[in-house]
Amino acid sequence: MSDTTYRAMVVEEVAAGKYDQAIVNLDPSSLPENPVTIAVSHSSLNYKDALSAFGNRAVTREYPHTPGIDAAGTVIADASDTFAVGDPVIVTGYDLGMNTAGGLAERIAVPGEWVTPRPDGLSSREAMILGTAGLTAALCVEKLLEAGARPADGEVLVTGATGGVGSIAVALLGKLGFKVAAVTGKLESAEFLTSLGAWKVLDRETLAPFADKAIAKPLWAWAVDTVGGETLFNVIKCLKYGGGVAACGMASGAQFQANVFPFILRGISLLGVDSVELPLQKKAGVWGKLAGDWYIGEQLEKIAEDISLDQAPEFLARLHRGHGIGRYVVDMT
Ligand code: NDP
């Protein structure tokens, strides 16, 4: 980063419905007027960044725009006097990278209420291997534990298992002693999933035959669903009595057709998970867990692929097609 300019990925609408992503030098005066300025050392790529980078107006209303819902780095300046210069911090979610210039840049400027201190047990890079995906996976696991999930209950299904949220959910649940059944469209990645802690790996097509049934044979005790759409309800139909699913994603779609049978005949719980608007204190608590008892350092190394800011557009295109595996960490050091 030079003293006068900083590098950022900027997405522009170059023709109606056609979006271009370029790495450019920006003047610090182009940062939004927010009190906390951060030198970003690491960011990461999330599905939502891919939506923003390819013009999804439900995520980003106006272009040119810099995506990036995750950032970790050090404070350069804080007009609100909450943080000292040099403090290591993490920002995920809220409006970062949606309609506020995001973490795919060497600098961000954000409100203090979005900034959490980085816990000692996590490096900046590790915090971004986790990022919003890790926070979300941890929240899904918390929801299941709060609902009473115990390893003795039986297998826990994780859909979209090779994705960012899915792979971290597999690793976390494995660490906590659960037998994880990882569902994937990429069976060639079965070894990767097993190395993260999956008990078994299932083809995505395993769930397809349940589409025609109102309720199906109970197969799994609990589930984390990152895929949404019809998959979510197919999972719900196959949960054992008293089980539940933590639902956080929509990689295959937002809509699904449902009936009440799994809820009224088996007492199944549908547990919604949001990591974006979650109050900062709660976010900080989850980061503390991920740096402490839930630290999965060895698995994080298997999940991570380090890329440069210049490579971000190419890897966002991969995520947009559903072809991502694990987590892409953008190294800006
Ligand atoms: P990724 O792109 O990293 O992973 C998504 C995975 O879903 C893919 O790798 C693939 O895994 C699977 N998938 C993709 N397309 C389909 C499809 N058509 N049908 C079935 N499976 C598919 O995304 P993230 O892990 O970052 O995010 C996952 C979801 O969670 C997204 O919808 C995202 O928006 C949402 N999310 C929600 C958050 C919240 O706060 N609620 C926070 C973070 C993410 P495989 O090939 O292994 O099946």
TrEMBL record:
**In this protein, which residues make up the domain named Enoyl reductase (ER)?**
21-330
Q: Which Gene3D superfamilies match?
A: Medium-chain alcohol dehydrogenases, catalytic domain (3.90.180.10), NAD(P)-binding Rossmann-like Domain (3.40.50.720)
Question: Which Pfam families has this protein been placed in?
Answer: ADH_N, ADH_zinc_N
Give the matching NCBIfam families. Answer: oxido_YhdH
Protein name as catalogued: YhdH/YhfP family quinone oxidoreductase
**The organism of origin for this protein:** Microbulbifer salipaludis
Taxonomically, what lineage is the organism?
Answer: Bacteria, Pseudomonadati, Pseudomonadota, Gammaproteobacteria, Cellvibrionales
